[in-house]
Every structure is written in C-alpha cells, then in structure tokens.
Design goal:
CATH architecture of the largest domain: Beta Barrel
Number of helices: 6
Distance between the termini: 46 Å
Strand content: 25-35%
Order of helices and strands: HHEEEEEEHEEEEEEEEEHEEEEEHEHEEE
CATH topology of the largest domain: Cyclophilin
Largest sheet: 9 strands, antiparallel
Structural class: alpha+beta
Radius of gyration: 25 Å
Strand order of the largest sheet: 16-24-14-15-21-19-20-18-17
Shape: globular
C-alpha cells in the first residue's frame, strides 16, 4: 500500500520537475615450459579444486553509479559515473534527505555527471543526504551519501553532581551559542562566559556508497544502519574500524540489562582488551547528534571528558532508561534487524552486577560492511528500526 502511494508521488514529482540534463594493444604470449602438458594438467586441477566467489550476475547488467573521488573541494565538480548496464529505461537521480523527502531530481543521466550541473540543491546541503539511482521510476542499487564537510560548533559544559551522589561529572549544556535546553534559566549567567567559536565554513564534500554494518556475534547477527546526517565523523570512524577488522574477535565486555529503577539500559562493546579501558589509540570530537537514544540505537561510549570516545559503543535497550543520554552521548546509527541477538546479549548472566561484567563475555565474531538497500522517496528508513523481542532486567551507565 505504501509502495503504491510512493509510485503515485513519484509520478507527480516527475510531472512537475524540469529536466536537469538530458583498443587494447596485442601482448606477446609467454613461451610454454618444456613440461607444458604437466603444467596445464596441474593448473586444470587447481582451477577445479578452487572455490571462487562468483560475481553477482546482475552486477554487469544492472545500472550503477560511483563517485569519481571521495573528497571534493568546495568549488570543485561533484562528479559521479553512471553506467546503464543493459537498462533501456531512462536513468534518473533522486537527492533525498533521511526522511525520504525529495530535495532534487535529475532525469536522463548517463556517463560522467557533475551533480552541481544537474541537481543544484546539492550545493546548499547543510547535512548529509542520499543520492539514489532510479530506473525510470524504480530506485535501483546502493544509495550514495553526499556529506558536506562542516566544522562542528564548540561544545559547552558545566560541572554537576550525579543524582543522589557527591560525585561530580561533566554535563554538556550547549553547542556554540545555543543551549541544549532553551528553557534552562540556570544557564543564563554561565552563557555570558561562552566565547564564540569560528564561524562554520564549508570545506568541501565527501561522496561514498552507503554501507550497513553486519555484526556477527555468538548470540546471532545484528544489522546496523549508520546515520551520517546526524554524526558524520562518528559514523565514518565506526565504518573505517569495521572495514579494517578492528572489532573482529572482540566482545560485549559490559552488560547492563536494567538501570537502578529496573528499566532496560545498555550493552557495551568495542574494547579490544575487553577490560573497558581500551580503544583505538585516538579520540573523537563529540558531535551534536539529535538521534534519540531508543531501543536498538547505537551510540559512542566515552569517559567524562566529552571528546574521549574512540571505538567503544553501546546499544540502547529502552527509551525510558536512556532518554537522559540525549545530547550527552553521540548516537550514530540504529539496528534494523537483530533484536533477538541484542536481547540475548542483554540476558547474559553477570559475574559482577555493579560493573556489568558478564560471567562469559558475548563475543563479536566479525563485523562486515554490506551494501545498504535502495532508498525509496517518501519513506523514512528509521521507521524500520528493530523492535525489542523480550524485556531485560539488572543495573549501570555507558562509560569507559
């Protein structure tokens, strides 16, 4: 039913949007060795015995697109290459925000294309958007992320006491000259000391194929969609660590199935030492993500210093227990499947309830980047987020 409405919406969009753009040299053959017959037989046997990954039969025939380069300067061409494959239908491009709203369309594209010339809206992007190739009115293939490179505003902090405790912590209260809570009058005096940061400028663009992260654990698989529109650098860092195998053979060293009030809380992993103190050897600048901490959302763990995250992450088990983490931690993606694995890890028996230390650490067997599915105009992928399969139970907070 929703696809039917989407198709109708596409027809309207196409009707109301103007068109934006309509020999190898011979090589010498190597000499055969004296024992050519024996060598040929050995090669034949090796080929028969080898197990080679066969290419996707559609890969050579389906329409595809790719970025000419990862980074582009603010005024350089934003070039992609569109290949028709065996498609006879017109190829079109949709520029979409994360909710599926169409920001621009280019019709009849093929070959090398400068997006500046065919979709003017690309130049004015304030945050990452998605470029989707379509065969006539049908989206096909993996979307491409177009990320404007902008410096984040300075983070504003204050020191406060934890509830019912004499222990102080660093609380984030704003970004740039904007408080997190505009109605918080207690910040009126402290805001006078905020020194304005440098004005944000556009340093260029990053263009890359959208990839999901498949997390294989000994409790099952979790598929994660990243949110480069909310936390571009954090999502890219996670993606890079996954690609380089950093998380393989790791585990969830901290399991907090419930907070002090019995509400499902978090499961935490990403430390190669499995002690809670390890990381990748560098720290990330905290980003101002507005992705709410809700079930299945993945966010960065950190120490008290705001810019201390690196590789450790946590999955949220409920909104009720983690709403207070919004604005304090950087959420950068969400599970689209794998609730059984998440809930199974949350139910792991604990050796130390206070520390969330499992008796047997749930293992991460591997993490792998996999092509993200096509994005449909009019549809928000966040609506397909994973839902809890069971309820959890015990106590803690996503720290390092």
């Amino acid at each position: 039913m929703r696809i039917t409405r989407t198709a109708a919406a596409l027809a309207i969009i196409f009707a109301t949007t103007a068109l934006a753009q309509d020999a190898t040299r011979a090589r010498p053959q190597p000499r055969n060795p004296l024992d050519a017959q024996a060598v040929a037989e050995r090669v034949r046997r090796l080929r028969e015995a080898s197990v080679e990954e066969k290419p996707n039969p559609r890969s050579e025939t389906s329409p595809t697109m790719r970025a000419v380069q990862l980074f582009s300067s603010p005024t350089a061409a934003l070039e992609i290459v569109v290949r028709r494959g065996d498609s006879a239908a017109p190829l079109n491009l949709f520029l979409l925000d994360r909710a599926g709203e169409v920001l621009g369309i280019a019709k009849g594209v093929a070959g090398r294309v400068d997006l500046r010339n065919v979709i003017p809206g690309v130049v004015g992007l304030e945050r990452a958007a998605w470029l989707q190739l379509a065969q006539d009115e049908t989206p096909v293939g993996t979307p491409m992320v177009i990320q404007p490179l902008r410096e984040p505003p300075p983070v504003r902090v204050t020191r406060e006491l934890r509830p019912q405790s004499s222990v102080s912590y660093t609380r984030i209260v704003g970004w740039g000259d904007q408080p997190l809570d505009p109605d918080d009058t207690t910040l009126d005096e402290i805001r006078k000391s905020w020194i304005a940061g440098d004005p944000p400028i556009l340093s260029g663009y990053k263009m890359f194929s959208e990839m999901d992260v498949l997390i294989r654990t000994d409790h099952g698989e979790i598929l994660v969609a990243l949110a480069p529109d909310e936390a571009p650098n954090t999502a890219w860092n996670f993606r890079t660590l996954v690609r380089e195998g950093f998380y393989d053979q790791g585990g969830f060293h901290r399991v907090v199935p419930a907070d002090r009030e019995g509400r499902p809380f978090v499961i935490q992993g990403g430390d190669p030492t499995l002690t809670g103190n390890g990381g990748p050897g560098f720290a990330l600048a905290l980003e101002q993500s507005s992705l709410a901490h809700d079930y299945g959302v993945i966010s960065m763990a950190r120490a008290d210093e705001p810019h201390s995250a690196g590789s450790q992450f946590f999955f949220v088990l409920s909104r009720e227990a983690t709403a207070r983490l919004d604005g304090q931690y950087c959420a950068f993606g969400y599970a689209v499947s794998g609730s059984r694995a998440i809930d199974s890890i949350a139910a792991t028996p604990l050796d130390d309830v206070g520390e969330g230390r499992p008796k047997m650490i749930p293992r991460i067997l591997s993490m792998q980047l996999v092509p993200a599915p096509t994005r449909m105009p009019g549809l928000d992928r966040r609506e397909s987020r994973a839902k809890p399969s069971v309820s959890a139970g015990e106590s803690g907070a996503p720290t390092r």
